[in-house]
Amino acid sequence: METLAEVGAQLLSWQLLLAAFIGVAWGVVGGALPGISPSISMALLLPFTYALEPTPAIVLLAAVYVGAEYGGSIPAILIRTPGTNAAAATVIDGYEMNLQGKAGLALGISLYSGVIGSLFGLLVLMLLSEPLAKVALAFTPPAYFGLGVLGLSIVASLSGESLLKGFMACLLGLMVATIGTDPVTGGNRFTFGYPDLLGGVAPILIMVGLFALTELFAQAAIPGEGNRVRSSPRIRLPDWPLARRLIPSQLIGCVLGSFEGVTPGGGGTVAAFISYNEARRWSRHKEEFGKGSPEGVAAPETANNVVAETALVPLLSFGVPGSNSAAVLMGGFLIHGLLPGPMLFQRSADVVYGLYAGLFAASLFQLAVAFVILPTCIWLVNRPKPYLTAFIYALVFSGVYSINHSLFDLGVVLIAGVVGLFMRLLRFPILPTVLGVVLGFMIESNYRRSLVLSGDSHMIFLTDPIALGLLIFSAIVVLGSLARHVYDRNRKPAGPAAAVKEG
Amino acid sequence: MNRRMQAVALSAAIMAIGLGPLAAQTYPVKTVTLVTHSSPGGGSDVFLRELAKYLAPELGVDVVVDNVSGGSGAKAMAHMAAQPADGSVFYATTPTFIYTSLLSKPEKTYKDLEPLVNVFEDPEVIYTAASSPVQTIEDAIKGAKEQRVSWGAANPNSLERQALEQLKKVAGVDVGIVSYEGGGDMMLNVLNGTLQIGVGEIQEIRSQLDSGEVRLVASLGDERLANYPDVPTAKESGYDVSVRKFRGLAGPKGLPADVIAIWEKAIPALLENPEYKKAYSEASLLPDFVPHAEYGPFIDTFAAETESYLKEAGITEQ
Fold first, then answer.
1. Predicted TM-score of the model (pTM)
2. Position B15 pLDDT exceeds 60
3. Of A30, A130, B5, B168, which is the most buried if we count CB atoms within 10 A?
4. Residues of B with Cβ-Cβ distance to A404 under 8 angstroms
5. Which CATH class is domain B124-219?
6. Out of B179, B185, B316, whose CB is closest to A184?
7. Looking at beta carbons, which residues of chain A come within 8 Å of B107?
8. What's the pLDDT band for A500 if we cut at 50, 70, 90?
9. Minimal CA–CA distance to B102: which of B60, B171, B157, B43?
10. Do β-strands B89-93 and B31-36 pair in parallel, antiparallel, or remain unpaired?
């Protein structure tokens, strides 16, 4: 309670509120531009924080993170391009809703869920930091391996009509994830002499290629693709019956996001996908998932906004940044002579309370910012198709180029787009590929790290209780999906399987 | 910029500043760009941004920091090699750029750059969790002989890893050396007991050191650290392991002599600046000025040692 009182007092500072507002506005725009990740949006503002007092400086950066996690959903819904990694799961149902002319509602749901997620995450951050820090500490390499496998296990239910094709698509993603530096020896793998490949292939490049470019290519190549209904340029927040229907999926997003956020390396993307999958499992309207389900937008968007807050737990408790964005925030702390970690609360409690207050303000400011920029965004995507297509190409290419000022990255995105087009023609699902790219490195590096720890004994995965639990849970998920698949197939052998539609 | 313009600029500056500390030598360009491969907030980035604050008034120029990330420095080196050698662009050197040059064999390597001067040593230490029974390196080795333990290094290609491989060799024990994607992840694994000891920079563990959650076991430099005088060096403990994580600057090949002279004056002066001294001492950075004439050979020796280590460890082929 003392915490809440301190935080409340900080809310009266106009510098802090201004920093939170500017941060959110900048973050939403940065997040909405494909390629400009939350961490890049933050890094761009970093130099401007030098002149500020420590508290507004930290609030400014943290608010960018909050805004960017929300902003990523805007292009995911409107142009099938995840603006941030964590918005990839939002593409599935968000874009479907858009195609049905419900873009305003999809954006409203994502906004509403984002605000709820941010507020919930903040509450967790303020009140449960200590127990959650213990969770983070309990995660050893075998446990991270288990977490990665759990993330991958949902491939089984994202595969659409053919499990075999889903697994093949996933393998393709895992193969891409092996490019770069070997996590144990440090040698180069599959880089073919290109220095641009040394750091691996950034998942966002693959996502932008597979989602956005594939869609554009398909519209050009396949007759009848891309005929769309126009959306009214108004965002609609969900009404009460719909809001009530969204509660379970948001709850799932909140809980899973909290846990994923505190485990460094877990991150928003995995949280969003797992939440999507669980929301579908527990939904009363399973059949709508993949065809424009509002819950399919609410769950991942709640989860990734929770992560934007709970990812601060390892940063504030240990001084360990759990993601690129947290690393930039840590830079902000260091530049102002603050040292995140166990001593932060004792030495600079006022900054921490200020940060909480700023995050609270930032969560609410998302609404204001969204109501200003969203109508413009919807208006933009309602322009005649030739203009829109050219606009998306320009947006995607300039966004991708701006990450590293690299033509090589553009090549990677183009290749991913072409591969995605062929996958669509051959009816391969692309979501498993995306998951493979996102999780491959985490799974491999922690698997091999575990084996170094145990001296090449696989028993370590069974003796670590967290790893064992996660692996058993993954097995249940896979077997459950398999069983449902077989059941569906036997029941109606002629019809298409009632699994998720992969667009 | 030709000589006459320089002369004009020089006299103009003398007239403008009078007999200030730099009146005798005016820096030939107005803006100095400091390039790093590290992303904003990373080790070299923080180093450059702090340096920039004090450097700007010292040189009388504007100082900008430019992050050219990607390829663990391969991109930054290529970028640097294409810059004019007029003193307007410098690159923050750390062991990383040597590792990347040797391991990844990019088109432009450390050999295409000219080391300018060294500024700091970022001391590496061996540490363990406060609750761990390990008090000395001796304890760690003894423990490693009794049962399988693991030691942690922040990254697979790092000086930390090299230090641990050396220790493993001189102590003659078989331990797992686990590398991570950063010093923070590794520290969590030291804290939760997964790793017996870890090697890292003081900066990365400062908060835990202050709160008493981790304990220093040994420092890996040639001398004890001023901030932690009770912590013995590895050499004192009888294990001949020593590494020196340098932080300095390099420019494109062919730096003009007058530019070098200005830097050789400016850096030692900066290191004496009381405000800067306070900031870097708190971060446990050791002033480690190496003049231009010695810095090139120093980098070459470092590279040669690293190369033979990489070959011995089987990471690169003959």
1. 0.85
2. no
3. A30
4. 69-70, 75
5. alpha beta
6. B179
7. 195
8. very low
9. B157
10. parallel
